[in-house]
């Protein structure tokens, strides 16, 4: 357990430092803009490029792993979407954001740093694949469902073009594609370039976690929505459990890939859920509350997941 605390203390400690700094300095939200720009357009893309470009090409083409992980995540999405639509009689737009709150984890900001710290370099490939393909699908599903609700005023052709552009030009997707190309053609990288990429990649986790703490401080909890009662356990407990069971049921995956997927599924709700809600004027305050509460609770649940992984208590072969 001391090892788990040692892993999580610096990790969540950076979030706490960001939170405290924001509360003390009382900087406006706009002050975070350039740090977020650096994280999204420089530091994290450099990390993804580094991880993917140094990986044998056969490991990067595991379509079975990508499809299985996405299927497990969207089982959670579908469950919460149906609960919102049919049990709670919410609008399609509200149900969409609620579903994302339970299925869209903070895999971009928190995932790479924690997974590499806890599981080592062997977790690099599954983490990069999950982050890129899950984000790409989320970027497609969100505007698509909002268009059905007529929360999106663009024409179908304009909407499709904007979705394609957003997916293909996203820094995470571009950097992974470049890394894939470098790995496929065994492109050599000059030492100076490697050092530059390393320098940027090393800044990714600290900056992202600090920015996350600041973001949480700028969105104080005003009220606890009713939906929190089931979204929090679904996101932090059911989501990683479903990912684990589905990956084990399909079989044929390296245990470290399964552990990486489970760890990423256990992460709290992504801040992008609030961004999507804000973009369409839907479920904004409740999305902010969900992010804050799942992040606070994840200190316990992520610790438990890490304990199960590091202690060997997570069965390697669930199905024979």
UniProtKB/TrEMBL annotation:
Intracellular or extracellular location(s): Cell membrane
InterPro entries: Mem_transp_PIN-like, Na+/solute_symporter_sf
Domain of life according to the entry: Bacteria
Membrane topology type: Multi-pass membrane protein
Pfam families named among the record's database cross-references: Mem_trans
Keyword Protein biosynthesis: no
Membrane-spanning segments: 6-22, 34-53, 65-87, 99-119, 125-146, 167-187, 199-218, 230-250, 256-277, 289-309
Keywords: Cell membrane, Membrane, Transmembrane, Transmembrane helix, Transport
PANTHER family per record: AUXIN EFFLUX CARRIER FAMILY PROTEIN (PTHR36838), TRANSPORTER AUXIN EFFLUX CARRIER EC FAMILY (PTHR36838:SF3)
Family the entry assigns: Belongs to the auxin efflux carrier (TC 2.A.69) family.
Protein name: AEC family transporter
């Amino acid at each position: 357990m001391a090892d788990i605390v040692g892993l999580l203390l610096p990790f969540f400690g950076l979030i706490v430092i960001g939170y405290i700094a924001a509360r003390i300095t009382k900087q406006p939200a706009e002050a975070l803009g350039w740090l977020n720009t650096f994280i999204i357009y420089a530091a994290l893309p450099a990390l993804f490029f580094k991880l993917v470009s140094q990986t044998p090409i056969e490991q990067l083409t595991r379509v079975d792993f990508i499809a299985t992980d996405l299927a497990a995540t969207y089982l959670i999405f579908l469950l919460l979407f149906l609960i919102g639509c049919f049990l709670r009689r919410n609008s399609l737009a509200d149900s969409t954001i609620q579903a994302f709150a339970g299925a869209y984890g903070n895999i971009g900001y928190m995932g790479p740093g924690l997974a590499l710290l806890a599981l080592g370099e062997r977790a690099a490939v599954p983490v990069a694949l999950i982050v890129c393909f899950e984000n790409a699908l989320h970027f497609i599903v969100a505007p698509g469902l909002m268009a059905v609700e007529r929360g999106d005023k663009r024409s179908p052709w304009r909407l499709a073009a904007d979705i394609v552009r957003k997916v293909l030009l996203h820094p995470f997707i571009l950097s992974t594609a470049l890394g894939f190309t470098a790995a496929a053609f065994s492109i050599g990288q000059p030492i100076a370039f490697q050092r530059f990429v390393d320098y940027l990649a090393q800044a990714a986790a600290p900056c992202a976690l600090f920015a996350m703490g600041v973001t949480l401080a700028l969105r104080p909890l005003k009220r606890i929505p009713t939906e929190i009662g089931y979204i929090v356990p679904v996101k932090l407990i059911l989501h990683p459990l479903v990912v684990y069971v589905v990956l084990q049921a399909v079989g044929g995956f390296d245990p470290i890939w399964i552990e990486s997927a489970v760890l990423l599924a256990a992460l709290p709700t992504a801040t992008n859920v609030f961004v999507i809600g804000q973009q369409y004027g839907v479920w904004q305050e409740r999305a902010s509350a969900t992010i804050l509460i799942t992040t606070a609770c994840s200190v316990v649940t992520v610790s438990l997941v890490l304990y199960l992984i590091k202690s060997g208590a997570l069965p390697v072969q669930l199905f024979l």
